Amino acid sequence: MSIEYTPWPADLAKLYREQGYWQDKPLTSLLSEQLTNNSNGIALADGKRSISYLQLSQYSDNLAANLALKGLKKYDTALIQLPNCIEFYISYFALLKLGVAPVCALFNHKKTELQSYCEILQPKLIIASSMHDLFADEQFSNELFNRFNCLNTLIVDHHKGNSELKQGYLSAQPFEAPPLNPEDVAFFQLSGGSTGTPKLIPRTHNDYLYSVVASADICQLTGETRYLCALPAPHNFPLSSPGALGVFHAGGSVVLASDPSPTTCFALIEHYQITHTALVPPALQLWLSHAPHAAYDLSSLQLIQVGGAKLSMTVAEQVKPILDCELQQVFGMAEGLVNYTRHDDDRWSVINTQGKPISPHDEIKIVDEAGNEVPPNTVGRLLTRGPYTFRGYYKSPVHNADAFDETGFYSSGDLVKQLPSGHLIVEGRDKDQINRGGEKIAAEEVENLLLGHNDIAHVAIVSMPDSTLGEKSCAFIVIQDAATTKLTALILRKYLRQLGIADFKVPDKFQFVAALPLTAVGKVDKKALRATFEQ
Ligand code: AMP
Ligand code: DBH
Question: What range(s) does the AMP-binding enzyme C-terminal domain occupy (predicted)?
Answer without folding.
Answer: 445-523
